[in-house]
Amino acid sequence: MIVISDSSALISLGVEKLDILGKLFETVMIPEAVYNEVFNKKVSNLDLKKTKFLQIEKVTDRKMVKLLKMQLGYGESEVIALALEKGIDRVIIDDKQARKVADKLGLKVIGTLGILILAKEKQVIKEVRPLVLSMMEKINFRIDRALLNKILGILNEKPI
Predict the structure, then answer these.
(1) Rg (the chain; Cα; Å)
(2) Where are the domains of the chain?
(3) Quick one: CA dihedral 22, 28, 34, 40, positive or negative?
(4) Is the pLDDT of residue 139 over 90?
(5) Which fold has domain 2-113?
(6) Rounded to 5 degrees, what angle do the CA atoms 48, 128, 35 make?
(7) Shortest CA distance to 4 belongs to which of 95, 78, 62?
(8) Partner of 149 for a Cys bridge, out of 64, 97, 99, 159, CB 3.0 to 4.6 A?
(9) Is 86 a residue whose pLDDT tops 80?
(10) 56-69 burial, b if ≥16 CB within 10 A, otherwise e?
């Protein structure tokens, strides 16, 4: 399965578990804007050479990106435009507004926490809780505590 990712999941999972994406998806495409944000601006310590499942793609529909940028950030705009352009219906986006726009455009959206839940369901990881705690500590990953505890309860994990 192919998915297109925004920077937030790459940065969040890159703390400890970027390889989760490679175990869940055959290919993770990232548009150039996401590549530049994550790898060129050095907002993370990720090494692109160590992630064989990541594929950088150029968005050709610049009009769509321009339209989306009226509401969203550059990375999110390119993720959605690339998905529409390539006919790929799955995207990884955490930004609330971008998730709404992607959903309205018929894309299936999953966020970083959803990736961790999927990874646990597919037995790629044993627990979600320690990874979320690490992301909260190291990169200030934000999530509503009540929602997180509800999810942890469903997963039979200790609340925070």
Answers:
(1) 15
(2) 2-113
(3) positive
(4) no
(5) Rossmann fold (3.40.50)
(6) 20
(7) 78
(8) 159
(9) yes
(10) ebebeeeebbeebe
